[in-house]
Design a protein that fits this description.
Helix content is 51%, strand content 8%. It is of the alpha+beta class. It has a 5-stranded antiparallel β-sheet with strand order 1-3-5-4-2, with helices on both faces. Strands 6-7-8 form a 3-stranded antiparallel β-sheet. Helix 11 packs parallel to helix 13. The longest helix has 34 residues. It is elongated and about 95 Å long. The C terminus is likely disordered.
């Protein structure tokens, strides 16, 4: 049940609309379902001998405005309180008597007409559709004072949550006041008239978020906005210092031919200039770290940046799993990383990644505050991805994209658990929705490299396959049934273990390290997750068609079980790849 509140000054004009044919949706059988005293004249149910809807409408207007006229200049300029209340599309159809109850509870909750108060404001509830009503009240009490209407929207929302429970309706998630402003009806209707897929407000919010992803300075942020084709206007103080900014879409004009400007703060609470400056100051993107040892020089910049971002994202997931409030800053950084990957992803998965970034945006804001400096690594990763440019959908670009997206699925699920633990229902829901979009994108991105790995695994000598499968059964006992029932399921993982061994690593030690990195319970496919972890830890190409640097120099001979046992007693750098802090990793859950 969703309330929407507006204020105005024309009682008669609003009643004409409510009892009229409707501008978009057809108004069917308009009628009163409730009023302040139960005896208000109803233009839709006039039973007089010679009914005239216009006369009855004028009588109803005069009755509602009586106290407004009595108050004279003491009445508020916008004396009309208008609240539409709509049920969810899946809810049952409420009766007129039930809608009367809804209206009475709402005007009581917002202090317009408290139960038992003879001086409450006058109001009516009009129904002209199955799924909603309109409540119109005039905001002057019987004692000619104004009602105290502080936080009326929050109070109406809270009462709707209670009525959903009492009436057996779908229970919506409560808000916490940190959500972005939704487009108005006029903005949505204009988008439909002009053929735009969404309201200008939503397009601008996404464009501003993408311009901010990984930006190092305020000047760079504004440059990106202009390069994206937006109109940008700064607001300055008398001293000449910028105190805000407005953006507009080219061609989006009002009836006077002027651009329709939106302040950043009206797009989202965290997109105001002061909030952006805090993010830039506290979470300044660090220089991109040098390439890790073992990376091929001919790997593209997008591939290298995605591989680096995967490790940083995995660290963010660990912090979210720890559950501390300080992890709130990681959510902001993850949001920027999603925006960065969505801008530069291959065309085949760009729409899903953009949907994931847009959905996760709701999960980046809550009332939990944390030090923004914790976002530096993530903002640096986002900056590197943006600066590296668009990635191809094939080769190492495609493989590292799948590697990063696989990790981001687990990161968003960790964010959902973090929010759920704090009762942030909307943010947790947004995180889970983002994970679904990422899963869809992953399946598309990973299709080719995983198919090649499966083929490579099936082509291995039988003795080698059995050896690696025995390793999997020993280290992943919970996967026994799956592996025995569908042996081909683990072919890609078996192929990766064989390549790990060929590169001179201990497969068992590296597999244990991959398992212990963090939990696997939320993974759709444990084998896929382990494939990407192993390939990153061992610095193997993300795309099976590429050849690793060590393989180019000549593969080491395969080791026997005895030699493996000896080597495990002598730790080597290969067993502990650069960048992984063994002492700081929590045990697998």
């Amino acid at each position: 049940m969703v309330p929407k509140i507006r204020r105005g000054s024309r009682t008669h004009g609003l009643l004409v609309y409510l009892y009229g044919p409707g501008k978009r949706d057809e108004h069917v059988d308009p009628r009163l379902v409730g009023s302040w005293d139960g005896f208000a004249p109803d233009p839709g149910r006039d039973t007089s001998p010679d009914p005239d809807p216009k006369v009855t409408l004028a009588r109803l207007t005069a009755a509602l405005d009586l106290r407004v006229k009595q108050a004279g200049t003491k009445a508020p300029a916008e004396h009309v309180w208008h609240c539409s209340v709509r049920t969810d599309p899946g809810d049952r159809i409420l009766t007129d008597a039930e809608w009367n109850t809804v209206a009475r509870r709402l005007v009581h909750a917002v202090n317009l007409a408290p139960e038992g108060d003879p001086d409450g404001c006058r109001w009516v509830a009009v129904r002209h559709a199955d799924d909603h009503i309109h409540i119109l009240a005039t905001m002057v009490r019987g004692d000619l004072r104004r009602p105290r209407m502080n936080y009326d929207f929050k109070k109406a929302q809270a009462e709707c949550r209670r009525m959903e429970k009492d009436m057996g309706l779908r229970r919506l998630k409560p808000g916490d006041g940190t959500g972005a402003k939704t487009p108005t009806s006029a903005e949505r209707f204009k988008a439909e008239r002009t053929g735009r897929p969404e309201a200008s407000r939503e397009t601008l919010r996404e464009a501003v978020r993408q311009a901010l992803a990984g930006a190092a300075t305020e000047e760079e942020f504004f440059t990106r906005l202009r390069e994206a084709g937006l109109r940008v206007k700064s607001r300055t103080a008398p001293s000449g210092d910028a105190i805000g900014y407005n953006v507009a879409l080219p061609g989006d004009r009002n009836r006077h031919g002027e651009p329709i400007w939106y302040p950043g703060s009206k797009l989202a609470p965290d997109l105001s200039l002061p909030k952006i400056r805090l993010r830039l100051a506290d979470g300044t993107a660090e220089p991109t770290p040098p390439s890790a040892a073992g990376e091929r020089a001919d790997w593209s910049a997008p591939a290298r940046e995605r591989r680096s971002a995967t490790g940083i994202a995995d660290s963010a997931a660990l912090l979210l799993d720890d559950g501390a409030d300080e992890a709130a800053a990681q959510l902001v950084g993850v949001g920027e990383l999603l925006d960065a990957i969505a801008q530069t992803a291959p065309a085949t998965i760009r729409a899903e990644l953009a949907a994931a970034a847009r959905t996760f945006e709701r999960a980046t804001r809550s009332h939990v505050r944390a030090e923004r400096a914790a976002t530096r690594a993530l903002r640096s990763a986002a900056r590197g991805i943006v600066q590296a440019g668009s990635a191809l959908g094939r080769g190492e670009d495609g493989g590292t994209t799948a590697m990063l997206v696989s990790t981001l699925v687990l990161v968003t699920l960790a964010a959902a658990r973090w929010h759920s633990a704090r009762g942030h229902a909307q943010q947790a829901h947004a995180s889970r929705q983002a994970a679904e979009h990422l899963r869809t994108a992953y399946r598309q991105a990973a299709a080719t490299p995983m198919r090649m790995l499966h083929d490579r695994g099936r082509a291995l000598p039988e003795t080698q396959r059995l050896t690696h499968r025995a390793t999997l059964r020993a280290m992943l006992p919970e996967q026994d049934v799956q592996a025995d029932a569908r042996p081909a399921k683990d072919d890609a993982l078996v192929a990766t273990l064989a390549q790990v061994e060929q590169e001179g690593h201990d497969p068992e030690a590296l597999l244990r390290q991959a398992i212990d990195m963090r939990e696997l319970d939320t993974a759709d496919d444990v084998n896929d997750v382990l494939v990407w972890r192993l390939r990153r830890l061992a610095q193997l190409p993300a795309h099976p068609g590429d050849v690793s640097p060590r393989s180019q120099a000549g593969a080491r001979p395969a080791r026997t079980a005895a030699s493996r046992s000896t080597e495990r007693n002598t730790p080597t750098a290969a067993q502990h790849p650069v960048g992984i802090d063994q002492g700081s990793r929590p045990p697998r859950r």
